[in-house]
Structures are given as C-alpha cells and as structure tokens.
Design brief:
The chain is α+β, with helices and mostly antiparallel strands. The chain has 12 helices and 5 strands.
C-alpha cells in the first residue's frame, strides 16, 4: 500500500509521487495534463516498443508476472483494433510496474519511476530531463529529512524515560488539574532547553519568528546538541527520582551539558553513521 504522497513541479504541472512496495511511483495522469490527458497514456501503451519495455521490466522485477497475458498482447499489438489501458494490462498480466488508484484526490495512473521516465521520453525529451531533475531534487530533500529524523530519534527513547518520571513523581505533587498538567512537562522540557541552548522554547520562537514557522528549537539543533539532549533527559529522570528541585536539577544539567558538548566538539569526530 502507499505510504505517503509528495509532489514535484514539472513543466508548470504538479506531479504526485507516492511510495508503493517501498518504491517510488510517479503519477502518469499528472504528467499528461499538458499532453492531451489520459488518451496520451493509452496511445503510449498500444505502442510495440512500449509493450516490449513493460514486459521486460515485469519479467525482471515481478516474480508473479503472467507471461501468457503478455504474449497475447504482443500478438495483437500493431493492429488497428488493439487497445490497451493500464487496468487491462494489470488485470491480464498481474503487473506491478503500473498501478491504478481510485479516488477523487489521490486517484490516477501511477508507474514505477523506471517506467515513468520512459513515458517521459515518449512525451518529450525536454520533459523527461525536467522530470529527472525535479525527481532528483525530491530525493535529495528526502535524504536531508531522513538525516533530520535520525537526529530527532536520538531523543525519543530517553524522552519517554524522562516523561515517565514526570508523570509518576512531579505530576502527583503538583496538585494541578488534568487540563493543566501539560505545564509540568513543558517546564521540565525547558529546564533541558535552558541547560543546552540557554533559552526556553517560547523565547526561541519569539527571537526566531521565521524559523519557528517550520520547526522548533530542537529541529534546528546540531547533532552534538541532540546527542547531549538525549543524555540529559536520562539524567533528569534520575534527578527527579532523587527528589531534587528545579533549580538543583538545572544546575547539574547545565554543568553536564557544558562538559559533554565541549568533549564532543573537541573530538572533531562525526556522530553520524557513515554511508
């Protein structure tokens, strides 16, 4: 099933890209907006070279491909009566390179990027070049996002440890009503923000209004800062269980933040995995 949908702009058209079978599929329906609509897809599919390409792609990538259906189509290709649609191709060959999605907003014909690029060549060489360029830009952006996700992952496990201590120890002693208990979590998060970034989340937003539109203080932290942040969350949980008050916890966390950040920055060793 599709995992997510993003878009790229090619020749002034928004073209959807989805994940299917953990592979990138590009919307052919969007690609033909300026080329006559779905009729262009049907014309392309009834071409002998296209049929050969689709068949070979499936033979290489699809263990469940029905070669008999493919051979039947090959016998009729070139005849004036020959007509092939994505659905007919899928139903008769169990193809996976092309998929047809129903729906008002996410619907349309999608094809694996290998096939979509081939279709782009058929539309025009210029279109294919722009398509590849924008698709490459998308993959570079996704690569950067994966890097961001990896950095944020550093804080997730220890964040649960910290919030567990807040829930079990600080919340009961706060005597706050349920709808106000989020304040305790926010205060504890800001103790760590102050220890590492020397500012609270709210103050950072006020001082960085443009950056705040697309993220928060931790989204723009360095890999070293997030590594230390993860460590401090675990330490903070321990200090909470020891019964230290906010000022005492902050003082110890601040000292530890400075020590760890200094050590990491002086080591000059990348914390990111290679490859």
């Amino acid at each position: 099933m599709s995992l997510k949908q993003v878009s790229i702009i090619v020749d002034n058209s928004e073209i959807r890209v989805i994940k299917h079978r953990n592979q990138d599929y590009i919307c052919l329906t969007d690609m033909v907006k300026n080329y006559g609509g779905d009729v262009a897809i049907y014309s392309w599919m009834r071409n002998r070279n296209t049929l050969e390409f689709l068949g070979v792609w499936e033979l290489i990538n699809n263990l469940d491909f029905k070669g008999g259906g493919f051979e039947t189509f090959k016998k009729h290709v070139g005849l004036n009566s020959f007509h092939l649609t994505p659905k007919k191709w899928i139903d008769n060959t169990n193809a996976i390179g092309i998929i047809s999605k129903a729906g008002r907003y996410g619907g349309g014909t999608y094809a694996h990027k290998d096939i979509a690029f081939e279709f782009g060549s058929w539309l025009s060489a210029e279109f294919k070049l722009y398509l590849i360029k924008e698709f490459q830009r998308l993959k570079e952006m996704e690569s950067q996002q994966e890097h961001w996700d990896y950095r944020r992952f550093l804080t997730k496990v220890n964040w649960r440890i910290q919030t567990s201590s807040v829930r079990q120890i600080l919340i009961p002693s706060s005597n706050l009503p349920v709808n106000k208990q989020g304040i305790v979590y926010a205060v504890e998060a800001d103790i760590i923000n102050l220890a590492i970034f020397n500012t609270t989340a709210d103050d950072w937003k006020k001082n960085n209004p443009e950056l705040a539109k697309s993220g928060n203080i931790r989204d723009y932290a360095s890999i070293e800062q997030l590594t230390v942040l993860a460590n401090l969350e675990s330490i903070d949980a321990m200090l909470i269980t020891q019964g230290l008050n906010k000022e005492e916890r902050f003082n110890q966390l601040r000292v530890e933040a400075i020590r760890q950040l200094t050590a990491l920055l002086e080591s000059k060793t990348s914390l990111l995995p290679s490859g």
